[in-house]
Design a protein that fits this description.
Layout (H helix, E strand, L loop, with lengths): L2 H51 L5 H21 L5
Helix pairs in contact: 1-2
Amino acid sequence: MGLMDKVKASAEVGLAKATEAGKAGQAKLDAAQAKHKADGLLKDLGMAAYTDHQGKGTDQTTQDAQRIVSELEAYEAEYGPLVP
């Protein structure tokens, strides 16, 4: 095997490792962004529950709470339970 073949093979291995690292990093970033969104949904759900508890809830509040619960269920289906 010539020197250029060795350099090319080494470069291909390095590129493959860099690609894998990039995919792993992107997956972590996606999970962190999803967690951040879930945290916001939990806050919104808490606000809807509090509003309802105070007797200030409306039909819209109930619809919002149902939508938020559905989004949280979808999150759990993809990423696992919110509460360990």
